[in-house]
């Protein structure tokens, strides 16, 4: 008998043995299970649970249409991948967008701006790396990370975004795209290193610590940092859980930290941040000054801030003591509190240096379904409401505006800028650039790509010194595409996009400029 035949027989016998064990175990389990299906149909019931378990993966890769998946379609996911890995968004045979559906479009001009006419800083070139595909087979793709150079596509001096002009240490931005808030604990050290190194190499970008506090890895990257302060005061609290100005002043002395952001709302969870106890390790507990292994639920507001006036006085105190820009992150909902905030700003003549508008479709980690599905306004109507209300009170020029909420592709970023945002944050775009495959395991601590986990075993999947090139490519490619879209629209820089450059097409084919639908312009 040949050796090959023996191997085949052995495998068949092993499979038969496993099948017998499965039937025996299932037979005895059905007698004491509380599951109704398993009681009457033990074998089919087991198959049902197996299909439930592998269903999301099968739908994502086999059954969902390229443009139908949620929270992001395969089409959008691949757009990020191509920007990050190959520094390219070239496609063949046309778009997969449903042009019959209603939606926003960027209006081109008859005489676009030439590349040499753009108001852009493309020098100096920066050393970079991108993947080059050598062979793509049925079960594998042979590709190599190859060194090259790239232009950075930064704003010229006249278009630079100055945040906190009146602060001792204002922050001047030469780019319009950076990483949104992701807290250490929800994401791990390797992701922080990858996104930070990438943002640093791209220039004109930034990372946001999220409400989990600043850790050494944030500072080690050398990137521009927006340090977020949430209602839980993690990293800024004393032993009694109260806000510590001393700890804030210590953070303000860090040269990498360019600004502070008070988190009043987050698109995915208005009620406050959430971190499962299984993810709260010793380091997280130390940084946040909480107990190891216990689930963390942040308060849904700052306990010592009860109204708009108290909030603005606190912001002013931080601005004066830290000398750096201080802003706030909000989710747009009820109109009256927003108008009251703006009225109070005018009455007190106190303004945050920037305000981040987070759409309700945001969400880079664990959240609650009822919150994620129904609470707060999606980004585009939220941004329109905020900008127009600020213009109504004649205070739009008192602060800069950041927009966030599923803005992962150049066209969506361009629309947000045209509506009135000065810059755009993206969390999940940066996560995808770092290797996220949308496994939807953010809440489990078992992220297979090593992004949304602090578990050392799973973090091995993410090599920050390789993924940093992807993050850099994503940022640079985003800016290049935005300048290309701006040129096609007839302006020399994305900074000059306005609502006139955006049209809305309904399902009947009627087209209306955004400036007519919402007349208050940027």
TrEMBL record:
Matching Gene3D superfamilies? Aldolase class I
Classification via InterPro entries: Aldolase_TIM, GltB, Glu_synthdom, YerD
Q: Check the record and name the Pfam families matching this protein.
A: Glu_synthase
* Molecular function, one GO term: glutamate synthase activity
| CDD domains xrefs | GltS_FMN
Looking at the UniProt entry, the stretches that span the membrane are 6-29
- Say if the entry is tagged with keyword Zinc: no
Provide the GO biological process annotations: glutamate biosynthetic process
Keyword flag Membrane:
yes
The protein, known as: Glutamate synthase domain-containing protein
Q: Which organism is it from?
A: Bacillus cereus (strain AH820)
């Amino acid at each position: 008998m040949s050796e090959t035949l023996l191997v085949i027989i052995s495998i068949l016998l092993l499979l038969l043995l496993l099948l017998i064990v499965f039937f025996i175990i299932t037979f005895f389990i059905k007698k004491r299970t509380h599951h109704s299906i398993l009681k009457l149909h033990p074998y089919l019931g087991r198959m049902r649970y197996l299909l439930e378990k592998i269903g999301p993966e099968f739908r994502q890769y086999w059954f969902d249409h390229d443009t139908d998946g949620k929270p992001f379609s395969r089409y959008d996911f691949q757009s990020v991948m191509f920007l990050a890995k190959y520094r390219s968004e070239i496609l063949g045979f046309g778009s997969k967008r449903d042009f019959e559906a209603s939606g926003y479009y960027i209006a081109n001009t008859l005489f676009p701006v030439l590349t040499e006419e753009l108001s852009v800083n493309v020098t100096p070139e920066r050393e970079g790396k991108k993947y080059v595909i050598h062979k793509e087979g049925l079960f594998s793709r042979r590709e190599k990370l190859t060194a090259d150079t790239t232009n950075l596509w930064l704003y010229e001096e006249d278009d630079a975004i100055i945040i906190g002009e009146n602060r001792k240490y204002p922050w001047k931005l030469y780019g319009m795209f950076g990483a949104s808030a992701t807290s250490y604990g929800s994401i791990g050290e390797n992701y922080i290193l990858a996104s930070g190194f990438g943002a640093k190499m791209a220039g004109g970008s930034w990372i946001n610590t999220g409400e989990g506090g600043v850790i050494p890895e944030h500072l080690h990257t050398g990137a521009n940092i927006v340090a977020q302060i949430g209602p839980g005061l993690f990293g800024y609290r004393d032993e009694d859980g109260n806000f510590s100005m001393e700890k804030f002043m210590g953070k303000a002395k860090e040269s990498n930290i360019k600004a502070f952001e008070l988190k009043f709302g987050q698109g995915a969870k208005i009620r406050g941040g959430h971190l499962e106890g299984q993810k709260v390790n010793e380091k997280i507990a130390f940084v946040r000054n909480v107990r190891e292994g216990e689930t963390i639920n942040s308060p849904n507001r700052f306990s010592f801030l009860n109204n708009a006036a108290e909030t603005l006085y606190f912001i002013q105190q931080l601005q004066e003591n830290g000398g750096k820009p201080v802003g706030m992150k909000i989710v747009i909902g009820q109109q009256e509190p927003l108008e009251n905030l703006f009225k109070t700003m005018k009455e007190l003549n106190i303004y945050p240096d920037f305000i981040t508008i987070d759409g309700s479709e945001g969400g880079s980690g664990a959240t609650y379904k009822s919150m994620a599905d129904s609470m707060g306004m999606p980004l585009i109507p939220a941004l329109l409401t905020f900008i127009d209300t600020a213009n109504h009170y004649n205070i739009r020029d008192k602060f800069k505006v950041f927009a966030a909420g599923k803005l992962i592709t150049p066209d969506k970023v361009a629309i947000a800028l045209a509506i009135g945002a000065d810059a755009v944050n993206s969390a999940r775009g940066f996560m995808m650039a770092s290797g996220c495959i949308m496994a939807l395991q953010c809440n489990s601590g078992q992220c297979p790509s090593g992004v949304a986990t602090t578990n050392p075993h799973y973090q091995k999947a993410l090599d920050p010194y390789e993924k940093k090139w992807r993050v850099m490519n994503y940022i640079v490619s985003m800016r290049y595409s935005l300048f290309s879209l701006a040129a096609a629209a007839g302006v020399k820089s994305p900074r000059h996009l306005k609502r006139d450059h955006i049209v809305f097409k309904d399902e009947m084919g009627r087209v209306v400029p955004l400036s007519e639908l919402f007349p208050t312009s940027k």
